[in-house]
Amino acid sequence: MSIPVTLIPGDGIGPEVVNAAVEAIEAAGARLEWERVAAGAGAVPTHGTPIPPGTLDSIRRNKLALKGPLATPIGEGFRSVNVALRKEFDLYANVRPARSFAGVETRYTGVDLVVIRENTQGLYSGVEHYIDEERTAAESISIITRKGSERIVEYAFDYCKANKRRRLTLVHKANILKCTSGLFLDTGRAIASKHPGIEFREMIVDNCAMQLVKNPAQFDVIVTTNLFGDILSDLTSGLIGGLGLTAGANIGKNAALFEAVHGTAPDIAGKGIANPTAVMLAGVMLLEHIGERTAAERLVTAIRETIASKEAVTPDLGGSASTRMFTNAVLKRLK
Ligand SMILES: NC(=O)c1ccc[n+]([C@@H]2O[C@H](COP(=O)([O-])OP(=O)(O)OC[C@H]3O[C@@H](n4cnc5c(N)ncnc54)[C@H](O)[C@@H]3O)[C@@H](O)[C@H]2O)c1
Hints:
The chain has 2 domains: about 1-95 and about 240-335, Isopropylmalate Dehydrogenase, CATH 3.40.718; about 105-240, Isopropylmalate Dehydrogenase (3-Layer(aba) Sandwich). Helix 5 crosses helix 6 and helix 7 (about 205-215) runs parallel beside helix 8 (about 225-240). The two termini are about 20 Å apart. It has helices spanning about 15-25, 45, 55-60, 80-90, 145-160, 180-190, 205-215, 225-240, 275-290, 295-310, 325-335; strands at about 5-10, 30-35, 65, 95-100, 110-120, 130, 140, 165-170, 200-205, 220-225, 245-250, 255-260. The strands form 2 sheets. A 10-stranded mixed beta sheet has the order 2-1-3-12-11-4-5-10-8-9, sandwiched between helices. Strands 6-7 form a two-stranded antiparallel sheet. The protein has about 325 residues and is of the alpha/beta class. Bound molecules: nicotinamide-adenine-dinucleotide (NAD). Nicotinamide-adenine-dinucleotide binds near residues 71, 82, 268 and 278.
């Protein structure tokens, strides 16, 4: 029996990379049934809203979604659909692995770490407003709760155990943000005392950014608040070759949504040269989540072998292949 999955092609390069990923996931042997729905800027002209109710219904029903990037206007216009989806389905854990690829030249080899980001609270929630009519000042409200901190740190420890990871680094800014970041840190410390099998350390976020660039091998799993996780996970993506290579899972108790870490890449949209690896790897994470381990393993192996062979890599990795050519090379390995 095939498993229904909500499919959101998204904006910009979204449809190009999502369609490529669907072909690869199917060729890997997964039994999925795609329910294609709209969201993002592209949904506004047709549905009058960037989050059509039918899209929410589909995710609610299927509890599983694969999503392309969605455009969020800068400084004005509608609020982030990504943030709204994470809140609507309480997708509190954002898991972003970064593992080096053979064949991709970077500053370091052997990077293998995971950023686990709290996905529903903190500054990233965008709870803010101008405080005067002239717009001379604005304020932002960051809410961190003990319950929200507990469940993400517990998730991070569980993730370490399930994935044989040994060291968890909690990243914070409690020296300055004594209440919000302080609450996150205190909660993390209390939970750490219940997990003696995992080495627990804490690090201030600015130092963490420097340490990641200088010596990424010291990190295994990082757990942090929403905005810090957003920024640090793009940094870790850069360590392994860029945004075209990194996927993320948004996990909640009642739904899970898988996507690339990257955005709509307006500079290359429509040119047919986007790297579909990140969404393909989001597909791998989805397959692992639903227990389709054989298909997940086949797909990740085909992607990694294709990149290592350098026979058809896209321009972001220094090649000249199109999205189509790269996808064909992955499909060839899956046949
Ligand atoms: N999860 C999401 O839906 C998501 C995430 C980040 C940004 N966004 C949105 O995307 C839009 C553009 O954001 P941005 O320009 O800051 O970030 P971006 O990730 O779209 O692009 C940053 C750079 O990385 C390159 N890049 C990204 N993905 C690539 C791929 N698959 N292959 C090759 N190169 C790739 C782009 O060409 C660009 O040079 C904004 O509206 C933003 O809100 C959405």
